[in-house]
Amino acid sequence: MRIITTEHGQYDCSSNKEQVLEKFQQATPIFQALGDTNRQQIIILLLEHSALNVNQITEHMEISRPAVSHHLKILRQAGLITFDKQANEKLYSLRAGEFMTTIKELMLSIEAGV
Predict the structure, then answer these.
(1) 41-49, long-range: CB within 8 Å, 24+ apart, which pairs?
(2) pLDDT (tens digit, 9 = 90+) per residue, 54-106?
(3) What angle separates helix 37-49 from helix 16-34, to the nearest 10 degrees?
(4) Which of 16, 17, 22, 104 has the smallest set of CB atoms within 10 Å of its CB?
(5) Are 30 and 78 a contacting pair, CB within 8 Å?
(6) Distance (Å, rounded) from C-alpha 73 to C-alpha 70?
(7) Are the CB atoms for 99 and 80 separated by under 8 Å?
């Protein structure tokens, strides 16, 4: 039996196939969200500016405000971004730590099977 320890626990690699499938399922929304160039551009903007509202994001994009809102919703649902409500606006920012942990755990489970 081969055990890998991460900050989120220990993993038994003897059941690695099921673990890899589970980690892929957890990471799939992240990969789907990152598969669109507009969403990639939003991620880059938030890396550069830390927090922006929808109008500020739209100013940097070549798509409409409703389209930006749609992409923000997908990024939020995938756990890539979050927002803080301030007065009448939402300021969007990255949640890099959480989604990176999901991807790292996927990579660890794949490596354990190699």
Answers:
(1) 42/68, 42/71, 42/72, 42/75, 42/81, 43/75, 43/80, 43/81, 43/94, 46/81, 46/92, 46/93, 46/94, 47/94
(2) 999 999 999 999 999 999 999 999 999 999 999 899 999 999 777 888 889 88
(3) 80
(4) 17
(5) yes
(6) 5
(7) yes
Helix extents (H) in the chain:
16-34, 37-49, 54-59, 65-77, 96-113
Residue 98 pLDDT: 79
Q: Are 69 and 54 in contact (CB under 8 A)?
A: yes
Which tokens go with 85?
Answer: 């409500």
Compute the distance between CA of residue 92 and CA of residue 51 in angstroms, rounded to an integer: 5
Average pLDDT, the chain: 87
How far are the Cα atoms of 7, 62, 102 from residue 97, in angstroms, in the given order?
Answer: 12, 28, 9
